[in-house]
Amino acid sequence: MAARRRTAARVAVVAVVALSIAALGRITIDTLGDRATGPAPSFKAQLCALPEDWLELTQRGYYEGRSGHISLLPRTPMYMTTGGKGWTHSGPWDYLQKVPLVFYGPGVVPEGAEVGRRVSLADVAPTIASWMDHELPDVAGRVLPGLGRVGRVPAVVVTVVWDGGGWNALEHWPDSWPNLAALMAEGTSYTGAIVGSSPSVTPAVHTTLGTGHFPETHGVTDVPVRNERGIVTDAFLNGRSARFMEVEALAESWDMARGNRALVGEIGYEPWHLGMIGKGTETPGGDRDHAAWLIRSENRWTTRPEHYRLPTVFRDQSDLQPRLDELDVADGDGDDRWMGVPLDDPARIEENPAFVAHHGAKLRELISTEGYGTDGITDLLFTNFKQIDRVAHYFNMAAPQVREVMAATDAELGALVEHLDDEVGRGRYVVIVTADHGMQPDDEAIDSYAIDPNETERDITARFGPIVRAVWPTQVFLLDDELDARGVSVEEVAAFLGDYRLRDNATRVDQELLGSGPYAPNTRVFELAVPARMLESVTC
Ligand SMILES: [Zn+2]
Questions:
Q1: What's the predicted TM-score (pTM) here?
Q2: How many domains does the chain have?
């Protein structure tokens, strides 16, 4: 009875509002229709008023003790900015959730197929496992429909993730990915694929992809997580440990089942992609698989040698400088800048097409020198091209720099497939291409309001004292000691945020007085602000 009433109410209030970006086509964002200027509903009413899939995706993203104290959802299309007023990309909404998912392996998997069914990235690991007759017990994901093997077991499966390359970014730059479009047409493409959980962020989603579980089980919930003592830290401890992974990745489970004779590798930009391969020797019985990520301040490839092996090809980066020089001259001036990005600052040289080409070349070299795909045991190689995300964080997804790095990323996809054709041979490999989330359009482009997390934190502090550890796009981490010392409960802080208004957050006088976009100054900016532990217990 209650459930039926809820569904009817949802159908009534959910509306898809089309928001236009001037001169750049249209962008649609799901939003609830109400203007939300009245008093905040109860926690349970907030949870149960969410469309069912938003609630489910948020629940899948929660892990007790690891997640933050308060679960938040901005009143979409509002969104939380980064501390520096940049753009974030975390939430259960389609524009962030919908990602490409393509399997290309002529002679191994079906060709020229398109599947529209809603599937998620948790389905990838069990699907790969099924080709190899390998059991992944109790995973949340399911073998993808229509993706049974048509040929022999692949000698190598290469999974390529375009960080931030969700459908909204692709659709914004439709001419920048001809190679991906060709693989979609020639392989099997899942046009209804979603990430599958919220927060939709790099560490969480890559771990879903690698394990077949959602964060509610695999434990890697966000960029920051709470450790065993409740202290907020990095999800992969900046590369020191992958111990917050509570389950094995397919790659390590498969490798161990084959006496660690499979080649397993992960080439990424930061340790946040390690969830694709697992913990190396940190897992009892595991071996030192290939793993490489960047020391970002120097742009030097590195690894954690206690747990993984740095492939030898990453010891030589001498091809990078000539690529940067060429890029510098290519835009006509040789001014050590590419579209405004410095090319002589080691902390920023990975944001451009030259670095993408360097990454692609190293990946191909790795396949050849280490012998991926040469024997009868399936090798599993994973890589993350980060630049679409990184540049969209800096400049917004509508900036031409995003178009350029997307085209460069796509060119490397084309080169990878050619290389596999030459080195491994058709009928012996599968390439999987996907993304970990879409990107956030700018508030002005979608006539909305961008919530400032710093101001939110200041306002919580003004009301309760210094109890905040960090305000993230969809969750707030509090300081347990300070809550105790002040006698403040998580419920009180969540209720404060539920009643938090645009005028409270606005730092511009005009917005404080007039509101922003369609939103009046007294609009409550959070659709959901509840104690996170309620995500486990609520029944609607
Ligand atoms: Zn990002």
A1: 0.93
A2: 2
